[in-house]
Amino acid sequence: MAKKEQDKRFEKFGTVSFVAVSKVNDFIDYLEKGKIMGTRCKECGRWYFPPRADCAHSLSSDMEWFEVAGTAKLETYSTLRYAPTGFTDEVPYTIAVADYGDYKLFGRIDESLPEEELCVGMDVTATVEKTTNGKLTYVFSKA
Questions:
Q1: Same domain as 42, residue 28
Q2: For residue 1, is it within any domain?
Q3: pLDDT-derived band of residue 113, with 50, 70 and 90 as boundaries?
């Protein structure tokens, strides 16, 4: 009997891949198409980003994909000058939380956006980008 090939799509995501196999590996396919996707529980309506295969509230696995689109409000941000292993070559960089209303996203601010222009409450959008090592990611830019 042939051994089933392991789905390693998540190795294509982020600066450092902490997981290669996930129940939500389709997230990577969407990123490759330029779409940032989360999941929503069909049973209770909770929104998840990063995407989850199972709802933490209802314990249901009946999830659907939704696209992160439109503008969000920059809720908070912090510029890192020290970083954990795997990210030390990239400092300084700015991380942020963007509020889309029904859900929030955690991610990086586009490095072309100067820290002096950032302010809590400003409109931002999330777009798919590639890291310096060619892996998929997403960043927030000024809307």
A1: yes
A2: no
A3: very high
